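Justification of resources, computational component.

The compute hours requested in this renewal are based largely on the per-chain cost of generating structure records like the one below. Each record pairs the submitted sequence with a full structure-token output. That output is archived, and it is also reused by downstream analysis tasks.
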Amino acid sequence: MPITFLQIPTADGRADAFAASPDNGERHPGVLMYPDGFGIRPVLRELALELAGHGYYVLVPNLFYRHGPAPVIELPEHIGEEARPAVFDQLMPLIEAHTTERVLSDASAYLGFLTTRPEVEAGPVAVTGYCVGGLLAVRTAAAHPDQVAALAAFHGPVGTGGPDLFAELTAQVHFGHAEGDMTPEALAELNKALDAAGVDYTSEIYPGTTHGFTMSDTDAFSASGLMRHWDRLLPLLDRTLPAPRSLSQS
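The structure output for this chain reads:
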């Protein structure tokens, strides 16, 4: 299964990105995958390849392309607790510079690129995101209800966009929260807001997890949390997107 390195035209230049997809000459449903704040690195390629293996074309952009190609900052092979302060000192200015205006401008460019790829099946697409990428996924789905049929966010600050953002969602939604990020009381408030907005959703705390649980190159990684993430994500995509053509069908 190949990985293709790409350049996406945007209003502010060209965003470097990569795509993973089955190499069978067929068209496949499209998925826009937003990385966590650490950005594109081997673990993101592993996640994209795993999803592509189920029959999807997965596009992963460099969120911080305005500051240079990925990796924008140098990351250790394993992001442990000792390394986090120095990493975040470099990351936070990039995250803070990524304004809502920039998020929405980039989202239009990414979806326009994804939906016109010859490898991508005509029809709606999905948006997924991790950590801060989860909030970007929510903003993207809310801004493009005619294009995004499925939204999944994992250990992301999805509630910070406010109830007005939820009111714009028409996609089917799954939010997978880290136990270390979300109390049962906060979950109840979030789900109440989703109910009030009429969102078709599932939203749950993944037991025994801390923020970043899907990322195998961090101390937060949880194998059971990652598996639960696949157990929620794949059925969501299966329900909402054109039928995927997996490698076993090619």
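The longest strand covers residues 3-10. The helical segments are 42-52, 84-97, 100-115, 132-143, 163-166, 184-197, 223-240.
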